[in-house]
Fold this sequence. Notes:
Elements: H1 6-10, H2 12-43, H3 50-65, H4 68-78, H5 88-113, H6 117-125
Helix pairs in contact: 2-5, 3-5, 4-5
Amino acid sequence: xxxDFAPVFADFDALLRGAVVTVEVTACALxxxxxxxxxxxxxxxxxxxxxxxxxxxxxxxxxxGTPLLVQLFIWFFGLPQFGITxxxxxxxxxxxxxxxxxxxxxxxxxxxxSVDRGQMEAARxxxxxxx
Length: 131
């Protein structure tokens, strides 16, 4: 039995437009996730700054603890309940970006904390700061 690809080729332009939108959403969400992840990851490095540390921890607990689909539903269907209406593209980018930012922040925090103490001392001896 042969597969019939005629329906696929009949709407091939719609499939290409969908692929372009997918790449656009992915690129925007990746950029947003990296920026948020960097900020939150650095914010979770110093527990002495209680407010920032706790704010970042609550962000991580919420966005890593709820399913992505639920978060996307909240962005798309929940925000209009408060009078905030965003286009579907913006809801997708925000949802995916904020969700991925929670995971990127743990990657950033773990990467910074994995730098050996001897390397930090060597960097300071060369005149670099820890900031």
